[in-house]
Amino acid sequence: MDNLSCPNGTLPESSQVLQPNKRTPKVFLRIITMVSTLGGLLFGYNTGVVNGALVYMARPDQLNLTPFMEGVWA
C-alpha cells in the first residue's frame, strides 16, 4: 500500500491531502496578526518618545521650537 492510503485501503481525496510548505489561511492570519501587533507597538512607542521629547525641544535654551514647528515634528 501507499503511504497516502487510509487504514480502510482507500486513497484520501485530493482536497484532504496537505501539500508540503503550503500556507493555510490560519497560518497566514497568524503572520498578519503578529506583524500588525508589532507595528502597533512600535507606533505607540514612537509616539510616546516624540511627545516626551517635544517638551524639551520647545524650551528656549534647547531648540526653541515654535508651535508650528512642534506640529511639524510631531
Structure commentary:
It is a single chain. The protein is mostly helical. The chain has a domain at 25-73. Helices cover 54% and strands 0% of the residues. It has helices spanning 25-57, 67-73. It is rod-shaped and about 85 Å long.
| Helical/strand content category | mainly alpha
C-alpha end-to-end distance: 68 Å
Helical segment tally? 2
Radius of gyration: 28 Å
Determine the fraction of residues in helical runs and give it as a percent range: 40-55%
Strand content: under 5%
What ranges have pLDDT less than 50 throughout 5 or more consecutive residues?
A: none
- Number of extended strands: 0
Give the overall shape, derived from the CA principal axes. Answer: rod-shaped
Order of helices and strands: HH
Mean pLDDT: 79
Biggest sheet, open or closed, and with what strands and sense?
none
Features:
single chain, 74 residues, mainly alpha, 54% helix, rod-shaped
